[in-house]
Amino acid sequence: VQLQASGGGLVQAGGSLRLSCAASGRTFSSHAMGWFRQAPGKEREFVAAISWSGAYTYYADSVRGRFTISRDNAKNTVYLQMNSLKPEDTAVYYCAARPGRATTGSENYDYWGQGTQVTVSS
What we know:
Number of helices: 0
Number of strands: 11
Helix content: under 10%
């Protein structure tokens, strides 16, 4: 599975962005997907994950209620809708895939996209 993330950019606090992650390969629909982020000087952290069917979603406490993860298996794409953005959301965002169940640990994901920069100004 190859992943290509896009949709990052510069936005003011309170604004919105939608990230996309396009996957290649016919096995996308059997993979759980996750979004992670890494801010300068910090470790990579979990943001959100979604099961292969889309029936189950998981969020970090810091983004719950503001971010929504979704997927379209027909388009081999997973999305991260980010609303009410805060300066502390500034980071490089990565999408990741793993066969089987969705998890929150980055060490469990086998495939990673290249990352897309999100910058939120105050």
